[in-house]
Design goal:
There is one protein chain. By secondary structure, this protein is α/β, with parallel strands linked by helices. Helix content is about 35%, strand content about 20%. The protein has nine helices and eleven strands. The strands form three sheets. A seven-stranded parallel beta sheet has the order 1-2-3-4-7-8-9. A hairpin with a 2-residue loop joins strand 10 and strand 11 (about 265-270). Helix 6 runs parallel beside helix 7 (about 180-195), helix 7 runs parallel beside helix 8 and helix 8 packs across helix 9. The longest helix has 18 residues, at about 140-155. About 45% of the residues are buried. The mean pLDDT is about 95.
């Protein structure tokens, strides 16, 4: 059973105050056609009033527009329909905000929580409008801080999966120094904390044109015994399962024979097929 464990509903004919069932049904229809058997919906935590102040800078604050209760109502309604969907949040890890993040995540018993690193300081590393600021920090420092924050996220115990694990390459600007030691330290931390890593196929749709993470990083994760989930990071129904043939081939090439999904914060494994 293949589960697409990273979907967002936020780009649709609705606001997070009014989720129509028909919008989720379109994601499920695409999933059926793509031989994807289960979905994992994770709205961005920065969308909600209750997360205000947990992410750095004005970019995030300007997007805390909606009430978490409305998302929860939709989640409960969808679960009552018996759909093959797990629900959670994609939560940014920000150092020093761990207590606030924990309080926010405790507002509802999510099926799973994705842990992401999008910010190095106030700089959004995947934001085109922040590229000049990222260049001032410099690629070596960006990568070093990114991996350090990824390990801090794992050590926090707040998350189930580390998402798009080499995100700084999004615009095609790869590290100018070897990352093997960073890979090793990070997957060791993930294994120790019982956290999964993500094979995220959205990179195929980004300027970098490749899956997150690079094969060497996934190979290190497999060698360390870290479980893996696969996600399209789709924000639109048509991208459910996008890039999964390439993602599955990559996973097999480094040794993985199964992926994981979550229900009620419990991890389930399914063979790649």
């Amino acid at each position: 059973m293949i589960a697409d464990q990273h979907l967002h509903l936020e780009r649709g004919p609705y606001t997070p105050e009014n989720y129509p069932d028909a919008w989720l049904d379109r994601f499920l229809e695409t999933a059926a056609n793509a031989a994807v058997h289960r979905l994992g919906v994770v709205e961005h935590a920065y969308r909600f009033h209750e997360a205000r102040g947990l992410l750095p800078g004005p970019w995030a604050d300007a997007r805390c527009l909606y009430r978490l209760d409305d998302y929860v109502t939709f989640v409960e309604r969808s679960k009552a329909r018996g759909l093959p969907v797990s629900f959670g949040l994609e939560m940014d890890y920000v150092p020093g905000a761990e207590e606030g993040i924990e309080r926010f995540l405790s507002l509802y018993p999510w099926d799973f929580v994705h842990g992401s690193v999008h910010f190095v300081g106030d700089v959004g590393i995947d934001l085109a409008e922040h590229r000049a600021a990222a260049a001032q920090i410099g690629p070596k420092r960006i990568w070093e801080r990114y991996f350090a924050l990824s390990r801090n996220a794992a050590e926090s115990g707040l998350f189930d999966v580390l998402t798009h694990p080499d995100l700084p390459k999004i615009f095609g600007e790869r590290a100018d120094h070897p990352l093997d030691e960073e890979f090793h330290m990070t997957v060791t931390t993930l294994r120790r904390q019982g956290m999964a890593i993500e094979c995220n196929t959205a990179g195929l749709r980004k300027p970098v044109g490749e899956i997150y993470p690079v094969p060497a990083y996934l190979a290190a994760a497999f060698k360390a015994g870290v479980p893996v989930s696969i996600g399209s990071d789709a924000h639109e129904p048509e991208n459910v399962g996008a890039g999964f043939p390439e993602g599955i081939a990559l996973l097999r090439s480094v040794g993985y024979g199964e992926t994981v999904h979550f229900i009620g914060r419990e991890r389930f494994a399914s063979p790649l097929s």
